[in-house]
Amino acid sequence: MTALARRAHPFTPGAITLAMMVLAVVLPAPRATIALLVGTALLGIVAGAGKGVRLGLAVAAPFWILLFVVHALLGADARIPAPWGGTYSPTGLAWALDQGSRLGAIIMASLVFAAEFDPHRFLQAAIARRWPFGLAFLVVATLDAAARFSEQARRLREAQRTRGLRVHGSLIIRARAIPALIFPLLLASITEADDHALALETRGLTMPGVRTAIDPPTDSFGDRLVRWTMLAVVVAAVIWRCTR
Amino acid sequence: MNVSPRLFALVPAAVAINLVVGRVVAELGLPVYLDTLGTMLVAVLAGLSGGLIVGTLGQLLSGMLGGYFWLAFTPIQWLIALLVTVAARRGGFATPWRSVGWGILCGLACGMLSAPISYYIFGGVTSPGTTVVGAVLRTLGLPLSGAVAIASIGTDVLDKTAAFLVVGTLLRALPQRILGRFPLAARAVGK
Question: Mind listing the pLDDT tens digit for each residue in A177-204?
Fold first, then answer.
């Protein structure tokens, strides 16, 4: 069965992500933002983006630890004895909890969205909606290039290590590895540019005019309803926050 | 949007360079990031508009992979694109020493811009490397604002100096037939 996030119109998960991020900033912390963080994770699991939820936790965890260390353990405000020994700042801990839940909700929403984002369906949807083609193309081509360069970097690293490149040891040894690992990538990006430019020009990328989407994703009533609901929720939250 | 086919080809590769090189350097565990090389490269090759597009798109995509709160640092990418274009016009990549000088200048400017963003929006907790430096300075008795400022400026100066050196070395090593296609890059290395 295809995941719900993959079946939805590509703009719908994007609208939900944007709404979650605005709510993470607008809602009062920590209760509402913790609820938002948990809600985003549950929504991700239900929509079939469990991988994004796991990644979100992995990315957010170091921030939570650092917020706790910098504000609770090293906080400059009045300190009280901590249950684990030593002292901590309750004001700093409260701030770390507020900021940690807001950042956590934003990270979770971003990574759940990224885990199920299909660049090619997005491009088709953008063409069908008459979005600026150049902009949509740049987003999709960049995601493709990132995957290509990641693979190239991995192969390069293996090849250079086979030739005796040392990537462990002192700071100087590791710094010396930089040219061998990154110069070929930088050179490739420049030398390939002309070939790619020619290919894009012959395919009429910069020609003006309306494009036809080959296989535009279906924009169902449910998708539109979800997007309008998200907009209404965000507007309501902003008005509530401004007037309370 | 009026973009030349060459820029259409350069931008995706440059954004990918920002993301991939950042990851390669992080794996080496060095105290630099080098995650703005793509922005710098396109700013030198194609000018300010190219650098601005790469910087903005790069932040959008790295936000997608690491959390959109990084978007708060997009003005840093714009500042880098601007300063690199100015450096290129003034032959800032002609010798390693010139690269070092412009790198330090760029690092100071970026650090002074990123410190208030780090302090006021994130309470000093951003990338692990900079945050650890800030935390160490806090333990030495510095106030959080001072620790964040010193950590941001210090790491940015180191990072941008290394990045300018890398870009300068690459540009000077480019064969004339490639350099000839990019007039600003030729001017940057004094050819």
Answer: 888 888 988 888 888 887 888 888 888 7
pLDDT tens figures, B38-92: 999 999 999 999 999 999 998 888 888 777 778 889 999 999 999 999 999 999 9
Domain extent, residue B96, equals: 5-188
What residue spans define the domains of chain A?
8-117+231-243, 131-202
Q: Which of A178, A183, A195, A205 to mutate to test the interface with B (most CBs of B within 10 A)?
A: A178
**Count of CB contacts below 8 A, A vs B?**
189
Contact A141 B12 (CB under 8 A): yes
- Cβ contacts of residue A194 below 8 Å, gap of 6+? B6, B9, B181
Q: Which two tokens stand for residue A5?
A: 């996030």
Residue corresponding to tokens 């938002």: A36
Q: In CATH, what number is assigned to the domain containing residue B166?
A: 1.10.1760
Decide if B65 touches A, using CB distance below 8 A.
Answer: yes
Closest CA to A41 of A63, A29, A24, A28: A24
Instruction: For A173, list phi and psi in degrees, rounded to 5.
Output: -60, -45
Residues A182, B24, B102, B112: what is their CA dihedral angle, to the nearest 10 degrees?
Answer: 170
Q: Are A1 and A109 in contact (CB under 8 A)?
A: no
Closest Cα partner for B103 from B167, B42, B24, B189? B167
pTM over 0.90? The answer is no
What's the gap between Cα B53 and its chain centre?
A: 14
What is the four-CA torsion angle of B1, B6, B8, B14, rounded to 10 degrees? Answer: -130
Out of A70, A194, A197, closest to residue B123 by CB = A70
**Number of structural domains in chain B:** 1
* Helix H or strand E encompassing A88: strand A87-88
Shortest Cα distance, chain A CAs vs residue B10, angstroms = 5
